[in-house]
From TrEMBL:
<dbReference type="GO" id="GO:0008236">
    <property type="term" value="F:serine-type peptidase activity"/>
</dbReference>
<feature type="domain" description="LD-carboxypeptidase C-terminal">
    <location>
        <begin position="172"/>
        <end position="288"/>
    </location>
</feature>
<dbReference type="GO" id="GO:0004180">
    <property type="term" value="F:carboxypeptidase activity"/>
</dbReference>
<dbReference type="InterPro" id="IPR027478">
    <property type="entry name" value="LdcA_N"/>
</dbReference>
<dbReference type="Pfam" id="PF02016">
    <property type="entry name" value="Peptidase_S66"/>
</dbReference>
<feature type="active site" description="Charge relay system">
    <location>
        <position position="203"/>
    </location>
</feature>
<dbReference type="InterPro" id="IPR040449">
    <property type="entry name" value="Peptidase_S66_N"/>
</dbReference>
<protein>
    <submittedName>
        <fullName>LD-carboxypeptidase</fullName>
    </submittedName>
</protein>
<keyword id="KW-0121">Carboxypeptidase</keyword>
<feature type="active site" description="Charge relay system">
    <location>
        <position position="273"/>
    </location>
</feature>
<dbReference type="InterPro" id="IPR029062">
    <property type="entry name" value="Class_I_gatase-like"/>
</dbReference>
<keyword id="KW-0645">Protease</keyword>
<keyword id="KW-0720">Serine protease</keyword>
<dbReference type="InterPro" id="IPR027461">
    <property type="entry name" value="Carboxypeptidase_A_C_sf"/>
</dbReference>
<feature type="domain" description="LD-carboxypeptidase N-terminal">
    <location>
        <begin position="14"/>
        <end position="129"/>
    </location>
</feature>
<dbReference type="Pfam" id="PF17676">
    <property type="entry name" value="Peptidase_S66C"/>
</dbReference>
<dbReference type="InterPro" id="IPR003507">
    <property type="entry name" value="S66_fam"/>
</dbReference>
Length: 308
């Protein structure tokens, strides 16, 4: 069973770092104010405001900054400022040995799916949730509160309305997943994770419909759908199509593969590149219930209290 990092407490130090795309100090001002309102001390990594083309500094700078936060025992959580692209370039150069001795929460989504999966492969929970760049987005209040609750070890559970493509049923298993294109990128690498007996969640943005189909073909052919306990499908934001239409929506594409199996499936779940991006604890054992009335996802247990 994956280890659970200790819950945050008031006055803990949390770091904001940029393992992928660059971000400015001004873009993080709202997030810093929010975190300080949670009685947390914010530490900005050297990658904040660093630039190297689209990245937050060269690979070696992003590696050094993330490693420093991993190894610093005074840092109780690492929040990835934004996604974009870049985390797969540095993941194999990070040393998680000291982190394993004193785990801490690492949170993010999109490109940060790399870290979510890598940490689970190493046996640690992490948070797939809204990132500091998006803390002030309109309509994101519930997502932000869900992140706070996850970080501070408060109970979290979520519901979603019924969807025509849902398959009814109940499933239990560790939660795994994230951005579909990143899951494809990580396949066959040390960051890849088995899916058998687990609840898989998927989301993506700006993908061509034929590419969604191609990635689902790969998931299916590689056996990652066959033994799932359950499937949760979040936002597939801003889908792209060719001049000759593909002929199916993202959800219809996913359904064409999921229907080959018997596990419960929930569509239109509030996770992904939309303001309603609820914090999901990767590696935490969860219970998925899909009924005619809608979907409920809840966790067993809560974050570990830290001793003085």
């Amino acid at each position: 069973m994956p280890t659970t990092p200790p819950a945050l407490r008031p006055h803990d130090r949390v770091a904001i770092v940029c393992p992928a795309r660059k971000v400015s100090h001004d873009e993080l001002a709202a997030a810093i104010a929010v975190l300080e309102s949670w009685d947390l001390e914010v530490v900005l990594g050297e990658t904040v405001a660093a630039e190297h083309h689209q990245f937050a500094g060269p690979d070696e700078v992003r590696i050094r900054d993330f490693q420093r936060q991993l190894d610093d025992p005074s840092i109780r959580a690492i929040l990835c400022a934004r996604g974009g692209y870049g985390t797969p370039r540095i993941i194999d150069h990070l040393d998680f040995s000291r982190f394993a001795e004193q785990p801490k929460w690492i949170a993010g989504f999109s490109d940060i799916t790399t870290l979510n999966c890598h940490l689970l492969a190493l046996g640690h929970e992490s948070i797939h949730g809204v990132m500091p760049l998006l803390f002030n987005q309109p309509g994101g209040e519930l997502a932000l509160e869900s992140l706070r609750r996850a970080l501070f070890g408060e109970p979290v559970s979520y519901t979603a309305p019924a969807h025509a493509l849902n398959r009814l049923g109940t499933a239990e298993g560790e939660l795994i997943g994230g951005n579909l294109s990143l899951l494809q990128t990580l396949s066959g690498t040390p960051s890849d994770c088995p899916t058998a007996g687990r609840i898989l969640f998927l989301e993506d943005i700006d993908e061509y419909l034929y590419n969604v189909d191609r990635m689902m073909v790969h998931l299916d052919r590689s056996g990652k759908l066959r033994d799932l306990a359950g499937l949760v499908v979040g936002h597939f934001t801003n889908p792209q199509d060719n001049a000759i239409p593909f002929g199916q929506t993202s959800y219809e594409i996913i359904d064409s593969y999921a229907r080959k199996y018997q596990f419960p499936v929930a569509y239109n779940f509030p996770v992904g590149h939309e303001p309603e991006n609820m914090a999901l604890i990767c590696g935490r054992r969860a219970r998925l219930v899909v009924t005619e009335a809608g979907t409920r996802l809840e966790y067993a247990g809560s974050a570990v209290a830290r001793t003085l």
